[in-house]
Design a protein that fits this description.
2 domains; D-Maltodextrin-Binding Protein, domain 2; binds arginine; 247 residues; alpha/beta
Length: 247
């Protein structure tokens, strides 16, 4: 009986223990979301979340492994232990929160819109896009997609698997608007917007981004929230923020 009672305790050692035993922190991300995770010309994954993950591994005294994962499978991959944590600019939504836990938010963003230049002055907010004659793009399985379906239901919605394809269609005039998180649109507009896009940069949704972990792991959540509090107040967070977002 004693062994029987102790078994669940042994079996339920949290991610923090696994990470330390393994000597590696495994971070799941989809490197398409500038400036949080993206691939540079050398093929390295870089960005805000990556720098934060490096600090995290260092604070744990372990190595870091980045596990590149498709967005629409990232929550199942966490749940089946393909990695320890999602650090991928994920918005805390009540629906996602039914299947995973989130640490405290590390930044708050919201949906913004890149429209093709010809529509400037005509489309002033997401509300003006609520018409079947407008082709509105976002990315599969994201809060951008959810925002279009919920708040711009009459628009003709087109789903893309990558952010870049979506932006390019608006740049080329094949679609009218691209709806996505503010920081991504800032970078996309700077890279491709000149003479082609107008940026409606006032967020129209409220979206806290946070690290996702498996349920029933209070030790890991406690560590993460205290780590976040530390880096937010010792200058580390500001350094990373200024490097990728403010600059
Ligand atoms: N914040 C949005 C969401 O949670 C988009 C995040 C996309 N992240 C990524 N690494 N591709 O749906």
């Amino acid at each position: 009986t004693l062994l029987f009672l102790a078994l669940p305790l042994i079996a339920s050692a949290g991610a923090l223990d696994d990470i330390q035993k393994r000597g590696t922190l495994r971070v799941g991300l989809e490197p398409a979301y500038m400036p949080f995770e993206m691939t540079n010309k050398k093929g390295q994954i870089i960005g805000f979340d990556v720098d934060m993950a490096k600090r995290m591994a260092k604070a744990m005294g372990v190595k870091l492994e980045l596990v590149s994962t498709a967005w629409d499978g990232i929550i199942p991959a966490l749940m089946t232990k393909k990695f320890d944590i999602i650090m991928s600019g994920m918005t805390v939504t009540q629906q996602r929160n039914l299947s995973i836990n989130f640490a405290n938010p590390y930044i708050v963003v919201g949906q913004t819109i890149l429209i093709r230049k010809e529509l400037s002055g005509i489309i002033k907010s997401y509300k003006d896009l609520n018409n079947p004659k407008y082709k509105v793009i976002s990315k599969l399985g994201t809060t951008g997609e959810q925002a279009v379906k919920r708040l711009i239901p009459k628009a003709t919605y087109i789903s893309f698997e990558t952010e870049q394809e979506g932006v390019i269609d608006v740049v080329n005039g094949k679609a009218d608007a691209f709806v996505y998180d503010l920081p991504f649109c800032v970078v996309a507009n700077a890279q491709k917007g000149e003479g082609k896009l107008e940026f409606l940069d006032k967020p129209f949704t409220y979206e806290p981004l946070a690290w996702g972990v498996r349920k029933s792991d209070p030790d890991f959540l406690n560590w993460l929230n205290n780590f976040l509090n530390q880096v937010k107040n010792d200058g580390t967070y500001d350094k990373i923020y200024n490097k990728w977002i403010k600059g």
